[in-house]
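Objective 1b. Sequence-to-structure analysis of D-alanine--D-alanine ligase.
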Amino acid sequence: MENDSFPPPLKIGIAYNLQKGSSSGAEDMEAEYDSFETIKAIREALESAGLRAELLEADSEFIEKVKSAGVDLVFNIAEGTQGRGRESQIPAILSFLGIPFSGSDETTLAVSLDKALAKRYLSTYQITTPHYQYLKNPQARRNASLRFPLIVKPDSEGSGKGITELAVVENEEQLDGVLARNFSLYDEPMLLEEYIPGREFTVGILGNEDRLTVFEPMEICYLQQGIGNRIYSYRIKKNYRHYVKYQCPASLDPELCEFMKKTAKEIYQALECRDFSRIDFRLSEDETLYFIEINPLPGLAPNYSDYPMLAEFCGMDYRTLILSVLNSALVRYGMNPVALNRGDLP
């Protein structure tokens, strides 16, 4: 018999793309997709708050599945399947159907995934970023004003995808080789960026408007020397315990720390991010802060992804983080947040 003292629990759909093994020549082709262990961890966090969770894989049948699921809100971590606007696919569908969802909307995700487009847009806010060039096809050539060393990145990828120990190039010959490889493997435009020697940081943000938390910056400290071991590549992310240590809060001058957090907040708000995001920076040897990229759909793999890791360093456990992201979305839609403390549950 149902207890009429409490409303029925919310039903939360989890939209995701799953790693299934790729036959592509690139080992990182599914780097952005989630393992089932991550999906399970999110589901357990939601269910621990008395919510009902429905798994909704973002495949060709997603529209039918989400329409029939009867969910109150979708907790979105789906990366999409193809194209530079792929992260927008599920949010666009949900917006079209009028179904509430967590995280940034389709426009923010599309602009942010395109690194060159995001940099161009943020430059109007006087956000400092390394000099860069967008190469649309293999016939494009480096602008002579770009100074070596340069770092080569697929323009619309995350999770270190397409970035190897060879990504930093010192001369034209190395550049031609990396570009030929990347265009062949990833079949998308490339971003050339002046490599910034120095320190690397990431800043996590949680919430919206007046309920915004900017976590303390986390520094990625490289354990081995050499440029190939001082970029946050897919290989290093995958085996981070062998290559890096994380320091959070980072050892920074208080004024510089506040400036980094302030800049992260400005970027978050300029791009109209919602609920949660992670912003990456490089700090040059003369202490100039450079924006590198933003991820408004950061990975949530427990004990692996940077976002939950930095949150935990700042005192927020995984369960609380997932429920806080959810609550940010619920409040944004005018819905009641769920209790974070187990003792407060009905």
